[in-house]
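ugh finaly. both done.
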Amino acid sequence: MRLRTLGLIVTLALGILAAPLAARAQQAGRVPRIGFLTTGASPVPWEAFRQGLRDLGYVEGQNIVIERRSAAGKVERLPDLAVDLVGLKVDVIVAPDPPAAGAAKNATKTIPVVVRTSDDPVAMGLVASLARPGGNITGLTSLWGELSGKRLELLKEVVPRISRVAVLWNPAHPGAILALRETEVAARSLGLQLQSLEVRGPNPDFEGAFGAAARERAGALITLRNPLIVRHRTRIVNLAAKSRLPAMYDEREFVEAGGLTSYGANLSDLNRRAAVYVDKILKGAKPADLPVEQPTKFELVINRKTAKALGLTIPQSILIRADEVIQ
């Protein structure tokens, strides 16, 4: 009788121990599903994020599944796409631009969301603070708005004789007002006049904006980042060249497309870093406890060929500080 009772106790104990082991084994065999939600203004976030996953040992179709949803530049489509990902019960949603981040935030309060936003995530209402996000959202910020003044300073160094700078921006974009204010503060300290060139979607009048810059005799151009401008970067770069306007951008892709210069965080690096957040969350970390990461390295890129076409000689003080000079 005692042996039978002892055997029953052992059996029950083994069953209790085996249950979580079986659950963990089942969980270990499950392939995580990641939702990737983007406005679609640039292919860079997707490519860099996938590379970041590969660097961590994730192979799409083998040990991870990625549900990619792109609004193809149509911001109004993002809410429905975000709801679609929530319906698929993905484990994490990655949103690499501000409109996508906002749509993901509105679609779910429970699924972890990793953002890579150019705007201030606290001001956007995405997180409670950078150190303690506090909800289901965390990720990275590129300090885009805060660097607008620094870009104007660098533009003044590249083109010392300018007195009037045209600002190409979209007032409807979250964070645009903050970036414009930063630019205005820098303009006052540098003794520069700013000319506002507003462009709005879905059919922005870039030709009209550049025509206005020519009429007011702007000596240079600076762009305030938003998906609309990113999506039309080649068109903008070509119009700047046609108007013979030296231009400062916030990401290297503009310079690679023929723009004069850019200054900002390396967005490819930040999007690769987003994969690190996904990895931590899949391993059990809570977004509320993962601080929002800010960039520590910024890159200055110069296109010397474009400078030559504009009749500009880039000062040596700028060239020696450049992270890359495209010849």
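ok and the 2nd:
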Amino acid sequence: MCNSKDYRYKVYICGMGNEYNRLSSYLKLYRDRLNVLGIVTTEKQVISEMDGYPCKTIQEIDAGEMDYVIIAVNQWRQIADTLVQYGIEESRIIRGSAFYNPNFDLDKYLRLKNSNISILSNFCLGGCCIKN
């Protein structure tokens, strides 16, 4: 995992429903930063590809070839727990809703995510960091 601007993060996307559809419009903004390796589902699907990406089950993905998994489902915690059971580190899991934040910067987000920082706040804005 590299922080260089010329590096494309290799990702899988978990989810095929409405949240995936919402996320896919945001991912177009990051096509120069992301290399989508495939769509991951918990069950074997009838279709073999979606939006040009191969569809795979969790058992079929290779954790060694990817940098992150983006979860694009409402029940993200269940999917994250399942991914961890299959050997994917929690630090390599990204909630798709992160992309919906205003002024979202993928590289800054990943640096912050991997920094082990804790933010304590007595109101809900504690999770929103804005550059001035």
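summary for the 2nd one i guess: The mean pLDDT is 83.
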